[in-house]
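Dear colleague,

Thank you for sharing your sequence with our group. We've completed the structure prediction you requested, and as agreed, I am returning the results in plain text so they can be pasted directly into your records. Please verify that the sequence below matches your submission; if there's any discrepancy, let me know and we will rerun it promptly.
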Amino acid sequence: MAVGMLAGCGVGGNAEAKLKELGKDEQATIKVMSMYDERMFYQQFGALFSAKYPNIDVQVVSTQGAIKFTPDTDYNKEITKFIDEQKPDVLILTLDQYEKMAGEGRLYELDSVIKQDKFDIAGILPSVLGAIKSRSGEKLYGLAPGFSAQALFYNKTLFTAQGVPLPQDEMTWEQVLELARRFPNAGNDASRPYGISLGTGDSLFRFIMMLGQTKGLNFVDASTMTMTMKSEGWKKVAQQSLDAFKSKAIYQSKDQFRSGTMEEYYKQEPFIGGKVAMTLNGAYYLDTLKQAKTALKDGMPQWDLVSYPAEPGNPDSQSTITVTQIFAVNGQSPSVRAAWEFVKYINSDEFARVTSKAPTMGNFPSRTTYMKDAEGHNLEAFYKGKGNSAALGKSLAGVPESFVGQLYGIAEQQFKDAMDGKITLDEALQAIQDKGQAALTKAKQEEEQKKKEK
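Please find the predicted structure tokens below.
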């Protein structure tokens, strides 16, 4: 109740407040907390803002080197300490940090000033706003100028040559795998094309997790800290994954890139070199394809992309949208208006337009109007779904990070043994359930012990 009252009535509770505008010639200074050093920050954000608002002096307080990492470092606690000491006016936060600070009433609520300034948020992708609001009681305490996402790239040249129908938006995993199996598995590894590359390090368990997520499955119940892998839902997903790997439709990387020219490098890249017909990748891969087109003298295959595989009746499963940087105003800032002007500009239509032609760096502008491709590729595939991936992270809140790493090792081995016929799938799931539960319980106990000691 105390936290709720603080969030509703404290520094963030400014629903009826009017924020005085900054005079044209009025000077102001703001500090911005950033994970980047000053040079990189100005390249990406500061230079454009300073040109637009020369009367607002921007000072960067970087967390780089300021927080020393050890196995026992409580990063959220250190960030809070950093903010209390440095007193930045603008905070650039992860989704988890944003949720924590909004819940503690540390952030300035933006809904009223957005309305007051008639700031257009209608052009921002609803899934991005939804991801933010889902962590702060459906109110906005921050905005994100960009997002990352994945889509299914496909080699049109290879599909046409093999006489296989082209992929479509909103396909299910079953349909994608069926297309992948239509590519011939005869011939040796060097000559045959593969249906799909997963982009997951060829991990069997990661693929099972991908399929499970689209079907709304969780591997642990965070409310009770119990494993949930021993179920019919997970068994069906695991069997589907094992069958896909056994069919040899999935390309498994050999990491055999040899030294040489950039042209030789790109020819060895599985998708660009025509080794695989489809690949799951993010925004950064667009930059890779552009660079390859320049480097390859003989040209490269025609390609396009479609939306991430979905589950019928579950629109959230179709989207992989992730918000990684949320710009918020420190509720304790003495320069709230100047800080808001910075956040507002970085999330404005103008900023999105000016920066849209820069390399993606793994992110797209949240104002998707400026997601353009000169060759007409289907970039809408990245944000076709109405959901976002924030729900998955929230469902695992409280689960020790150390346990997740242990689970991957346990599950990968058990599923490989099942695929090789050493054990049955039921035995694999039971072993994952039992060993995973033991690891989860131990990790949680160790986490609680460390908290007590601190």
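Summary note from our side: The radius of gyration is 24 Å.

Kind regards,
the structure core
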